[in-house]
Amino acid sequence: MTPPARTQAAIELLDQIIAAARESGAAADTLIARYFATRRYAGSKDRRAVRELVYAAVRKAGDRPENGRTAMLLVADADPELAATFDGSTHAPAPIAKDEPRARAGVAPQWLTKALRASGLDGAALTDLAGRATLDLRVNTLIADRATVLGALPEAEATPHAPYGIRLPTGTNVEALPLFNEGALEVQDEGSQIVGLAMQAKPGERIVDLCAGAGGKTLALAATMANEGVVLACDTDRNRLSRLAPRATRAGATIIESRLLNPTREIEALSEWAGRADGVLVDAPCSGTGTWRRNPEARWRLTPDRVSRLQSTQQQVLSVAATLVKPGGALVYIVCSLLDAEGNDQVKWFLNAHPGWTTEPLTLPAGAKHGHGIRLEPGRDGTDGFFVARLRAAC
To answer: What is the pLDDT of residue 5?
Structure first.
């Protein structure tokens, strides 16, 4: 592909990504993979170059652009070589017209930027939300230890905070690593590893992972508990939960049970666990504002109404979790969001709605105290953004 053809391909992909964000369609990575699956003539360098153009435009545009061209023009304004590819030649975008509209540059849509500022994020911290993520993995201590893994992978380094984390160069084919296929490694952001430590699970305990998804934190709990006790992994999404079983088998995690839940009927499905769990982990559905480094187009999918609906879901899940914790047991609330509306404000709501519960101080390898919990931020901590709080039931 010529440079102009690459630019045109990026514009076409951006059109698809913008439409998908508007209509709750497929993620950008999925759309890019589909695009090149039907264009075999594009070599690996072409695919990489187009992908970089696409994500440069996605990261730069704050509001959802009108179309892919306005987004790419925003990037071209600061790159004369890219601007020169708008030459109108075969397979190239049309020349840039005088005063042609551009997408608005920014970290996020204006309403969302305002909400993040109100949640205590300054200019530098906001800018860092649109940075690039590292490739982090957790060493599965049921099978290996970090020192051994680091010795076997010269290109790896220990993560600065998480005790079992390693970091590999971006683009590493993790699934081709023998250690991964042997179950010694799981892909997991360092921040996710750190907030999972707030559960403080011990061997022999009964723990519920109420919003387990594909089971990243479930597997970490099983390793922390040295395969002694029970971890019940629950979710309402059958497809996501179905990915846990093969992962658990590969990891040698034998104490995990899974249960598919019917939304709004969770208490009924978990009746035998009522008041019996030593701890419940609630990694609640959220806006994902802490994960924009990995999914930058997610900024374009959010609306105030969606955040409001997520808050209602978070409160419902927290209320279910409260019924499962035994007297004196713990509830850990996690969101990969930096909005107080989904983090600290939800803990305040929970304490008002559930008398007898208290918050406990947390000490984690990274993050800083934020309201009733701890917040991790991409710029300060080098992780995805998270809020985590630990609550204790009355004895």
So the answer is: 94
Tokens 């007898």 -> residue:
356
259 and 270 Cβ atoms separated by less than 8 Å: yes
Q: List Cβ neighbours of 122 (8 Å cut-off, separation of 6 or more).
A: none
CB 167 within 8 A of CB 136: yes
AA letter at 324: L
> Which residues are tagged catalytic?
336
Closest to 373 measured CA to CA, from 211, 246, 198, 167: 198
| Region of 72 on the Ramachandran plot (φ > 0 left; ψ -120 to 50 alpha; else beta) | alpha
Cβ atoms < 10 Å from Cβ of 224: 20
Q: Tokens 């892909």 map to which residue?
A: 187
135 neighbors 168 (Cβ within 8 angstroms)? yes
Between CA 332 and CA 381 the distance in angstroms is: 21
Cα(235)–Cα(241) distance, integer angstroms: 6
Q: What are phi and psi of 233, to 5 degrees?
A: -100, 120
End-to-end CA distance of the chain: 68
pLDDT along the chain (395 residues), means of 10: 94 97 93 90 90 95 95 96 95 94 94 96 89 95 96 97 96 95 96 97 98 95 98 96 96 97 92 97 97 93 96 97 98 98 98 96 96 96 97 95
Q: At what angle do helices 244-251 and 216-224 cross, to 10 degrees?
A: 30
| Confidence at residue 55, expressed as pLDDT on a 0 to 100 scale | 95
